[in-house]
Prior knowledge:
This protein has nine helices and six strands; from the N terminus they run H-E-H-H-E-E-H-E-H-H-H-E-H-E-H. The protein is mainly alpha-helical. The chain has two domains: 3-65, no CATH class; 89-203, Arc Repressor Mutant, subunit A (Orthogonal Bundle), CATH 1.10.10. The strands form two sheets. A three-stranded antiparallel beta sheet has the order 1-3-2, with helices on both faces. The chain has a three-stranded antiparallel beta sheet with strand order 4-6-5. Helix 4 (89-103) packs across helix 7 (140-155) and helix 4 packs across helix 9 (187-197). Mean pLDDT is 83; it is low at 196-204.
Amino acid sequence: xxxxxxxxxxxxxxxxxxxxxxxxxxxxxxxxxxxxxxxxxxxxxxxxxxxxxxxxxxxxxxxxxxxxxxxxxxxxxxxxxxxxxxxxxxxxxxxxxxxxxxxxxxxxxxxxxxxxxxxxxxxxxxxxxxxxxxxxxxxxxxxxxxxxxxxxxxxxxxxxxxxxxxxxxxxxxxxxxxxxxxxxxxxxxxxxxxxxxxxxxxxx
Length: 204
């Protein structure tokens, strides 16, 4: 491989990591994941030396642990992929709770079951209760926020949608309607998110 080809591969791998800090070994970025693994030593050294970020590479995913320079910066929020609406504080909290619930779930789960697990986490956590955080399965706005968080996880490859329509869950009472069935991607991938996200929920 020529010097130019090596440089081009490293640039492509770095660009992919910057745009998608969690890369899966499967899916639309499988080729970029392969480049990240091929140039892992150079990438890890460059990222640690300049922005001071840590690169974690496992057999099934690569995770760039980006540290924001200003944690109060609200100019680049997470965005719901379908409607392209920025995340609210509640949706960030539900995203963290969804990750916590998924860490304890089976490899295959449903949106309704995930909602029940989140509700149980909320009612049994003293910090969430003292902060006034509530999640009600019968509340349409609460279910909508969960759907947006779930879509975000599907878009990032944390969850793989098997079948179902989220609108059936959203427009019902949160109980008996057919719902999405998810196939959890990998435990280690979810843990990679959780290690960055824990502690954020209590402040929402």
